[in-house]
Design a protein that fits this description.
The chain is α/β, with parallel strands linked by helices. The protein has three helices and seven strands. The protein starts with a helix and ends in a 38-residue tail after the last strand.
Length: about 160
């Protein structure tokens, strides 16, 4: 399924939430959408045979964040990229875990590292960093600490 066929299939379900469908090398297409239509998009794309969610990721572009989903269709033997821009001061979107259960861990990782909140997520808690860890290591605002000088104690036996 190419970009034009995908646009024709998704447009009725998404309406103005569908920003665009464009060619993307190595993929069936790149589907850009508004966060308000996330659940409808996830269901529509799943209904088109994209039954496997391979990845969820986030990018901090400083002025906004982008959330990316890569889904796979066994029937078509191709990936489709889904993406939405989120405001930097309010980066949240509905969870995809109701459509693709594998989104659970991917969304936890994205929340933890890029600070994108997934509304109604069943278990949004730390996955890679300790509980209570306040920093988001993949945000551009994250400052890497200077190396600390450690006192090395030598034990003589």
């Amino acid at each position: 399924m190419g970009p034009e066929e995908l646009r024709a299939a998704l447009a009725p379900a998404l309406g103005p939430s569908l920003v665009g469908v464009e060619p993307f090398e190595g993929f069936a297409a790149r589907v850009r959408f508004r966060r308000e239509g996330a659940t409808e998009l996830f269901r529509a794309v799943h209904g088109l045979g994209n039954t496997h969610l391979s990845m969820v990721a986030g990018i901090d572009w400083v002025d906004h964040r982008e959330v990316l989903y890569i889904v796979w269709s066994d029937a078509a033997k191709q990936y489709t990229l889904l993406s939405a821009d989120l405001p930097a001061d309010d980066p949240h979107i509905e969870t995809a875990s109701g459509v693709w259960p594998s989104a659970n861990w991917h969304e936890r990782e994205t929340w933890e590292l890029v600070d994108i909140t997934f509304d109604h997520h069943p278990d949004l808690r730390h996955l890679l960093t300790p509980d209570g860890y306040e920093f988001r290591p993949l945000l551009r605002s994250f400052k890497i600490h200077e190396p600390e000088e450690l006192e090395v104690k030598v034990r003589h036996v």
